[in-house]
Amino acid sequence: MSEPKSPTPTPGDTYKGWLFKWTNYIKGYQRRWFVLSNGLLSYYRTQAEMGHTCRGTINLATANIAVEDSCNFVISNGGAQTYHLKASSEVERQRWITALELAKAKAVQMQAESDDSGDDFPAVSPNSGQGGDCRNTEIQSTLRTLNSKVEDLATCNDLIVKHGSALQRSLSELEGLRVAVDMGEKVKQVTERATLFRITSNAMINACRDFLSMAQSHSKRWQKALQTEREQRIRLEETLEQLAKQHNHLERAFRGATVLPPSFSNPALGKKGGVSGKADASDEDDDNEFFDAMEEPAEFITVPADPKYHRRSGSNISGISSETGTDDQSVNFDELSLASNPESPQPLELEPVRQRRTRIPDKPNYYLNLWSIMKNCIGKELSKIPMPVNFNEPLSMLQRLSEDLEYYELLDKAAKSHSSLEQMCYVAAFTVSSYSTTVHRTGKPFNPLLGETFELDRHRECGYRSLCEQVSHHPPAAAHHAFSEKGWTLRQEITLASKFRGKYLSIMPLGSIQCIFEKSNNHYSWKKVTTTVHNIIVGKLWIDQSGEIDVVNHKTGDRCHLKFAPYSYFSRDVPRKVTGVVTDKDGKAHYVLSGTWDEKMEFSKIMQSSKGENGTEGKQRTVYQTLKAKEIWRKNPLPEGAENMYYFSSLALTLNEPEEGVAPTDSRRRPDQRLMEEGHWDEANAEKQRLEEKQRSTRREREREAVKAASPPEEGAHPDTYQALWFEKMDDPVSGETLHIYKGGYWEAKEQGNWDMCPDVF
């Protein structure tokens, strides 16, 4: 019976053939049918037994393959199983050795992937459908197969190098032979090694062919699957957009169906105070609207004070609070309501020394998909990501900081207050007013360049001057100093930290704001809350402010705790609500503030306080009996056509207006910002890239010079030694904080027209 010739082994395929297996000393080697498949070597007595009886199996993943002589080899898995095998020839033995080594490499790879699969499969969403699971399983299986093919190629490559080197040595030895007797033996050896090299090369060729065939076959399927996924993504985005539109429609319908005053964000406390007496507002409605906050774990409840307090004189009121214990109490309350008195002069009604502009060019209608850029920024620091001007507004961050002074008259009134508690009410209202311009401002301000400045000189019109400077680039930090002839100074240093979370963008201002009044020497400090931009993926962008602010008077110990409630679709309360309580150093409450950060704020004098019932979270809330609420601040109306001018306020429209005599580093002179304002966005993007590259080059040069100048450099010192021009970093002895404080010289340099010390920023 002739023995069938075994085929050349193909990596990854089943390999079969006859081998002689050692049984015992009596029977010796016996002929058995061996099958190599899926990393397992099995044997049978005959081919007919393959369907029903397996005589033994060994796993090659943990097996050791050793060659004994020209035809014998041993397979062992550590002692439990050992196969002593013999092939009919050296060539046949080498075929099996090649097939076994390839199968072992594949089995080891599959075992490693099986060990790691426990970390991979949980990543699949549990909500995925059965079809998605099947697709994932199929892809994982295909990837494992391709990886095994690559391992086969690597093994074949090692074998080719091994046998090729042996063949080369034999050929070298053959060339050096002189005796004809040795020539025949060496020729036979070279022939055998050439045969082994041919077998290994054929295995390599077959493995390459299989890998190429599989890659080509699956490439078409994957391209089709990728196209399907793209189409599904487009359909999903369209569906999300439709849902966002339906959400907005339902929200508008809900607000339209809710009984609210003409200004939807008019707080409930304002209804009880400022607009009481309207015929369409019954007592029952007032009570329901007043206690809407009970749905949330509010810290306190306010109720109208007993009427006897309203009939008392000023001297009787002083018995409740010694802080305001003079007959001028009623005068102080009337003064607090000046902001809402239509007969009182408004800053915008003053005849300005200079006629300032009231319009800027309309915003071009350039469409750019925000998600196409922001999807690559999830979890990253936004200030380090270059963004096109399409997402900006034609103002820098320094100019946005200067916008905090739009309601400077609140600080003017605070400077005139004789009571520190009343002064605290003004300062708290000023704190809230700085957010009123952000409600529709979804555009991102330009990141200032290092050394960039911005001055806001309103000394002749409003009595104050303001200066901002970018004092650091990474992290971006801006210092601001403003002073008024009315007796107050405002200074702040703000560092913005921003993170993109996929659905929304969070902007966390870090740093402190301080306000000092010359007459009373009261020193206030506070921090800003978090700004969140929603609907980054689909829908209309909208902004929310949330968090808590503690305004502290470091001289007297007075404190105002402000709470910015985050927006909730299911809340019955007014959106953008702000509440606050003014307390003295002993913790006694004197005033309650309430309103919205985009509309107005009101305050109420506390006449009596008591502990009320437990709230929804089991916390006992304080009940304040207050006098009638009075308006302390109201937002100025936006100019006509503001929706086409980035929703700028009247002050914001003038911030980038060209002015003579400003520093060469002033934001008004920034070319990319000017081009954007004029509607040339393509040119603005190109100019923005030029400025950013110039800033990087300047920083590298400054670092090189700092390294050369250091002899030796201090340990841990950063090579970038930029020093601000108009501000100096120092410790504030009152608040204990470290910040950049204005060191003077700017306004004197402006009067002299001497800007030689200014760096080349633009």
UniProtKB/TrEMBL annotation:
Pfam families: Oxysterol_BP, PH. Belongs to the OSBP family. GO terms for biological process: lipid transport. This is Oxysterol-binding protein. Residues 12-105 form the PH domain. It is found in: Membrane. Residues 114-136, 265-285, 307-329, 658-719 are annotated as: Disordered. Residues 666-707 have a biased composition (Basic and acidic residues). GO terms for molecular function: sterol binding. Gene3D superfamilies: 2.40.160.120, Pleckstrin-homology domain (PH domain)/Phosphotyrosine-binding domain (PTB). The keyword Magnesium does not apply. It is a peripheral membrane protein. One of its GO terms (cellular component) is plasma membrane. The keyword Aminoacyl-tRNA synthetase does not apply. Keywords: Coiled coil, Lipid transport, Lipid-binding, Membrane, Phosphoprotein, Transport. Residues 219-253 form a coiled coil. InterPro entries: OSBP_sf, Oxysterol-bd, Oxysterol-bd_CS, PH-like_dom_sf, PH_domain. It comes from Maylandia zebra.
